[in-house]
């Protein structure tokens, strides 16, 4: 009898030890465990294929990389869920990436995330997998469609208003977000513009989307619904060792050139900061490297710009047609200290990814007016920066590099997220934070707080 009781007690003790494994516990010592998905549940809205996957048919001659004579076949850009083809067969981190395909890539990465829910009523945010920049192509490429570019987004607005309208009406769209693979200016032409301006649509002017959060490659200064995310580079590591190996290579690279400019080298029709840079570099080829990236050649062949960046101390990032540049993020990944000529090129754009108050720790700013009107010499300014200060800036830059690159989807994603969030992780967390603030303001009947932009310059 005593033996039977001893066995029973032993079995009971074993059961108590195994119970957390057999039945995952929701409490420890009576205290409920925190819900890891609280405030972070995302519903990925199911849209008809005409709003996303059907749009990929434009790859046959319309994608930017197809415009370059050295391009791989246009539809090859779709490989690897939008990362493009590998730069060479043995590569597992470098791809010929077309920035316009950020939308399908971002969609693919969202589907990999935890805390997704099929029930929009339980969701804290609703993601719209709308490939907006691809849907704009007919208005940009077909002259017969130019006068109808104000209609960009009308079909999506009609669908959202009629298909399960409660999803949109529940929070009046304040919980909706999507990605726009281009500068916001290209989608903000006033709807009543006549004649229509080539190269732009009126998507962001549609009143149906006023409350949505748009993650764009470049935002405008004032609209509260936009926030900039980094331009995609060609570097998309699939594992933490690959990421660390690259950063180690960038850290130990010998920097023999003082500065580098990578971009279009054609002379502008009127003087601007780029023309002053090219003039300085033409006179001092021993200290300045120029890489011609016209026609998307550096995206097609990242070695073209990345190798020189690894050998340069500073990378010049002048504004072009718009203030921001992909080259800025190539420079970060290469450990080449970026040199900005206006705040709109990065500091006022990417507050979630790069801390605005700490730019002096990893970059140099030379106001363009000081160069163009004040006679400041870029080379002299950069040569005066002490070597130990350059080394400190490079180290800080490489610490930030994982935050601006887009990790490849794959099995090692969770380990990499534990080490450092990438551009997608940070963009999603930023959108969720912004949405939570708006929803609270909506529920508290504080409309003025809904349109606050206090979070724009807060690092995630």
Automatic annotation (TrEMBL):
Q: Name one GO molecular function term.
A: glycosyltransferase activity
Annotated signal peptide: 1-27
Q: What region holds the Exostosin GT47 domain?
A: 37-373
One GO CC term on file = Golgi membrane
Q: Where in the cell is it found?
A: Golgi apparatus membrane
| Keyword Repeat carried by entry | no
Membrane topology annotation: Single-pass type II membrane protein
Keywords, A to Z, come to:
Glycosyltransferase, Golgi apparatus, Signal, Signal-anchor, Transferase, Transmembrane
Q: Any keyword Cytoplasm?
A: no
Pfam name, any one = Exostosin_GT47
InterPro entries noted in UniProt: Exostosin, Exostosin_GT47
Similarity field: Belongs to the glycosyltransferase 47 family.
Q: Protein name, please?
A: Exostosin GT47 domain-containing protein
Query: What lineage does the source organism belong to?
Result: Eukaryota, Viridiplantae, Streptophyta, Embryophyta, Tracheophyta
């Amino acid at each position: 009898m005593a033996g039977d009781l001893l066995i029973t007690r032993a079995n009971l003790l074993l059961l108590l030890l195994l119970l957390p494994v057999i039945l995952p516990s929701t409490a420890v010592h009576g205290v409920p465990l925190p819900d890891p998905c609280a405030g972070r549940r995302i519903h990925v809205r199911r849209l008809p294929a005409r709003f996303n996957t059907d749009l990929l048919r434009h790859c046959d001659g319309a994608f930017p990389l197809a415009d370059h004579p050295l391009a791989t076949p246009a539809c090859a850009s779709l490989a690897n869920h939008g990362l493009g083809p590998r730069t060479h067969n043995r590569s597992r981190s470098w791809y010929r990436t077309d920035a316009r395909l950020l939308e399908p890539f971002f969609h693919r990465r969202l589907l990999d995330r935890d805390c997704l829910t099929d029930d929009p009523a339980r969701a804290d945010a609703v993601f719209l997998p709308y490939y907006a920049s691809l849907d704009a192509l007919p208005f940009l490429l077909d002259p017969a469609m130019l006068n109808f570019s104000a209609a960009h987004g009308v079909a999506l607005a009609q669908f959202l208003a009629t298909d399960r309208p409660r999803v949109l009406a529940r929070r009046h769209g304040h919980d909706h977000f999507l990605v726009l693979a281009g500068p916001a200016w290209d989608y903000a032409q006033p709807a009543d513009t006549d004649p229509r301006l080539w190269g732009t649509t009126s998507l962001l002017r549609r009143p149906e989307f006023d409350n949505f959060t748009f993650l764009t490659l470049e935002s405008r200064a004032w609209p509260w619904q936009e926030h900039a995310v980094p331009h995609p580079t060609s570097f998309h590591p699939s594992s933490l060792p690959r990421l660390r190996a690259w950063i180690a290579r960038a850290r130990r690279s010998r920097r023999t050139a003082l500065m580098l400019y990578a971009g279009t080298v054609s002379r502008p029709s009127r003087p601007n900061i780029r023309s002053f840079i090219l003039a300085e570099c033409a006179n001092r080829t021993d200290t300045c490297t120029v890489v011609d990236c016209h026609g998307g050649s550096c995206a097609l062949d990242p070695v073209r710009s990345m190798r020189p960046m690894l050998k340069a101390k500073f990378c010049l990032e002048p504004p072009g047609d718009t203030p921001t540049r992909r080259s800025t993020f190539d420079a970060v990944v290469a450990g080449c200290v970026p040199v900005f000529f206006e705040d709109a090129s990065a500091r006022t754009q990417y507050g979630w990814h790069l801390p605005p108050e700490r730019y002096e720790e990893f970059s140099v700013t030379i106001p363009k007016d000081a160069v163009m009107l004040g006679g400041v010499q870029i080379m002299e300014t950069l040569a005066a920066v002490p070597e130990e200060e350059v080394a400190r800036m490079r180290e800080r830059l490489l610490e930030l590099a994982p935050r601006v690159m887009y990790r490849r989807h794959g099995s090692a994603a969770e380990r990499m997220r534990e080490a450092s969030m990438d551009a997608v992780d940070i963009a999603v967390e930023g959108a969720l934070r912004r949405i939570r603030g708006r929803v609270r303001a909506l529920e508290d009947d504080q409309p003025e707080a809904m349109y606050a932009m206090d979070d724009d310059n807060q690092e995630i």
